[in-house]
Amino acid sequence: MKVVTVTLNPALDLTVRSDHLQIGQVNQGQDMQLNPAGKGVNVASILADWGLRVTVTGLLGEENSETFERLFAKKGIADHFIRIPGSTRLGLKIVDEARQETTDINLKGIQVAPPQVESLRKKVLTLAETHDLFVLAGSLPPGAPEDLYFTLIRDLKALGKKVVLDTSGRPLELGLKARPTAVKPNLHELSQLTQKTLSTPEDALDAVKSLQGLEWLVVSMGEQGALFFHEGEAVHAIPPRVVVKSTVGAGDAMVAGLVAALHEGLEVQEAARLATAFSAGSIQQIGANLPEANVLQELQSHVQVVTLASGRV
Ligand SMILES: Nc1ncnc2c1ncn2[C@@H]1O[C@H](COP(=O)(O)OP(=O)(O)OP(=O)(O)O)[C@@H](O)[C@H]1O
Ligand SMILES: O=P(O)(O)OC[C@@]1(O)O[C@H](CO)[C@@H](O)[C@@H]1O
C-alpha cells in the first residue's frame, strides 16, 4: 500500500523546555530543538520509521524549506511538496517537564492564493494514479477554502482511494460530509463538532452516536487513551504509563499507527494496540519518531484494550 500525507499548513516546531514556567515572568530555558513538522509531515516521519514507503505533499514556504528537505532525504520520504513564496510558519511548543505540561502557540501560516490551491489539488490527483491511501492532516492555511478537505476527499473516494482525515473546526465538519475512510478527532475537536462539552470516555461514547457511516473512527483523549470504532465494534485503548517528554504530535503518531494497522489489515483490537503504542513511543521524545522495534513491542504488550458493549457508529 503506497501512502501520501498531505500537509497544507506545515510548521517548523521550535520546542523549548522550561520547567516551572510562569507566564508573564522571566523564565529559564533548559533545552531547545527545531523540527520540521506539521501534522502530515509528522505522520510521514513516523510511517517511514515503521518501514512504509511514504510520499509527502502540501504547500511549503520556499524560504526555509531546507530542514524539511533534510528530514525527507534522511528518512527516504518522497518529497512532492509544492514550493510557494514565503517562510513556513513557526510552531512554538513550551515543554514544562517538571509539571508534565506542554503549551502550544501555533501561528497562522502563509497566505495562499487560488492558483496555489489548484496546483495542490492537481498534485493530489496525479499522486492518486500511483498511491492507495491519503492522510489529510492539520489546519488549512489562510486563503484556502474551508471545504478544501471535502473536495479532496470526494475526488479521492471517487477514485476508490482510502482517506484518513485529521483536522478540526469547520474543515473537519465539512470533510466528514465526504465520508473519509477514517477520522481521528481528539476530545476537544469532537466537542466542537457535536457542540457538547466532553471530558470523559463515557461522554465521547455518547457523542459519537451522531457520527454515522465511517469505516474507522478514533477519538483520542490524551492520557485517558482512545476509543476505536470499526465495523460495529468498539474498544477503549488505555496507554501504558511512560515518562513524557512532549505530547506534541501524540495524535499524529496515533494516526500513523492507524495507517500502519490499515496496511497490515488488523482487526480493531490489534489496531488500537498498535496505534496506542505508536503514541506512547513518540511522546517519550521530542519530534515525530518511533522508538526501536523492541521498545515498540514492549509498549504494545502494555496497552490495555477493553471491548465496549455499544460499538455501533
Ligand atoms: N500524557 C499521556 N500519557 C500517555 N499517553 C498519552 C498522553 N498524552 C497522549 N497520549 C497518547 O496519545 C494519544 C493521542 O493523544 P491526544 O489525544 O493528546 O492527541 P491530539 O490532541 O490529537 O495530539 P496532537 O494534536 O498534539 O497531535 C492518546 O490517545 C494516548 O494514547
Ligand atoms: O495548526 P495545526 O495544523 O492544527 O497544528 C500544527 C501542529 O501543532 O500540529 C503538529 C502536532 O500535531 C505540530 O507539529 C504542529 O506545530
In short:
This is 1-phosphofructokinase. The chain is of the alpha/beta class and 313 residues long.
Characterize the structure shown.
- This protein has a single domain, classed as UDP-N-acetylmuramoyl-L-alanine:D-glutamate ligase, CATH 3.40.1190.20.
- It is 35% helix and 25% strand.
- It contains 10 helices and 15 strands.
- It has helices spanning 39-50, 66-75, 114-127, 148-158, 169-176, 187-194, 201-207, 250-264, 268-282, 293-301, and strands spanning 3-7, 11-17, 31-37, 54-61, 78-79, 82-84, 90-96, 101-106, 133-137, 162-166, 182-183, 216-220, 226-230, 233-238, 304-308.
- Strands 1, 4, 5, 6, 9, 10, 11, 12, 13, 14 and 15 form an 11-stranded mixed sheet that branches. Strands 3-2-7-8 form a 4-stranded mixed sheet.
- The longest helix has 15 residues, at 250-264.
- The radius of gyration is 18 Å and the shape is globular.
- The mean pLDDT is 95.
- Bound molecules: adenosine-5'-triphosphate and 1-O-phosphono-beta-D-fructofuranose.
- Adenosine-5'-triphosphate binds at residues 186, 220-223, 225-226, 239, 242, 244, 247-252, 254, 276, 279-280, 283.
- Catalyzes the ATP-dependent phosphorylation of fructose-l-phosphate to fructose-l,6-bisphosphate.
- Belongs to the carbohydrate kinase PfkB family.
- Residues 16-291 form the Carbohydrate kinase PfkB domain.
- Pfam families: PfkB (PF00294).
